[in-house]
Amino acid sequence: MNANSASSFSKPLFSVAILDMYNGEPNQGMRCILDILTRFSGLVQYEIFDVRKEAKLPKISSFDLYISTGGPGNPMEGDGTWDVAYYQFIDQLSLWNRQQPIKKYVLFICHSFQMACLHFGLAQVTKRQSTSFGVMSIHKVETGHTDPLFQGLNNPFWGIDSREYQVVQPDHAIFKNKGAQIISLEKIRTHVEYERAIMGVRFTPEMVGLQFHPEADPISFIANLRDAEKRNRIIAMKGKKRFRDMLEDLCDDNKIYKTNETIIPNFIRQSINQLMEQRKMEVN
Asked: Strand runs (DSSP E) across the chain, as ranges?
């Protein structure tokens, strides 16, 4: 069997396209995403498309759900080929959802989320004063309390953060015009004057994006700590006490485990439920 597809189930009902934005760099995110998808064996099949290295994108009519991953580098830069194709693809998905009764559902993660915010003109993307990496609290705003993606999570909830860039300075007029909503913000930092970054946006009923890594599990974070250079860099950034606290957070069932078991599964289940209703209406 092709390593980029799953067929342990004979007649899957829904297809998922994973848009790989990792640019060929080693990562734990893909393993985590595939692990979550295996929880839906029999319902979904998937295929991976290498967007940045090979400029590959799926045929829109062939897939129901799209998960666009995180990735390294500056979200404002591309090579003039893959990034142009990616933005055109987002536009095509948006057009499909405006015109077709059976929708396409999209989750943008981290790097993809930053690119989507730029593309839709919703906010600015800027380089952070320092890299944010580790376990952090994420706060629902008013609209986030009722957003189905966060159903089952407390406020705040916890996620793995890994970013050198951030989405800030929302243009509220464009948000209103497009019907988009901010659904979460980064932790409150009373000791600094920096603006709180946007951590989640509901672009449309079918498209949602998150700045953090909802796919991450404790194993993925610990894998990074095996690299002495990365471990020492984290300790230098956070200090030994906060580093130890972070390790404790990883073992807390109500933090990273909870987010891993909730957000992407919510996205898949809710999308499938909507698609089933839409297919029924088409038949009738």
From this structure: 14-20, 44-50, 65-68, 105-109, 124-140, 157-168, 181-186, 198-202, 207-210
Cis status, amide bond into 12, omega within 30 of 0? no
Grouping H, G, I as helix, E, B as strand and the rest as coil, residue 104 is coil
DSSP track, 2-48: -TTB--SSSS-SEEEEEEE-STT---SHHHHHHHHHHTTBTTEEEEE
Q: Mean of the pLDDT values across residues 204-212?
A: 97
Q: What is the pTM of this model?
A: 0.90
Q: Are 156 and 113 in contact (CB under 8 A)?
A: no
Task: Give the DSSP per-residue string, 181-204.
Answer: EEEEEEPP-TT--PPPPEEEEE-S
Strand order in the sheet with 44-50: 44-50, 14-20, 65-68, 105-109, 207-210, 198-202, 181-186, 124-140, 157-168
Classified as helix, coil or strand, 64 is coil
R_g of the chain computed on alpha carbons: 18
Secondary structure element (H or E) that encloses residue 116, with its range = helix 111-119
- Total Cβ atoms within 10 A of residue 99: 7
Tokens of 257: 């485990």
Residue 92 and residue 223: Cα distance in Å, rounded?
37
Measure the CA–CA gap between 62 and 6, rounded to whole angstroms: 15
Average predicted confidence (pLDDT) for the chain: 89
Residue 246 · residue 135 · CB < 8 Å: yes
- The DSSP symbol for 151 reads T
Strands 124-140 and 14-20: unpaired
Instruction: State pLDDT tens for residues 189-206.
Output: 655 556 889 999 999 999
**Average of pLDDT values for 30-55?**
96
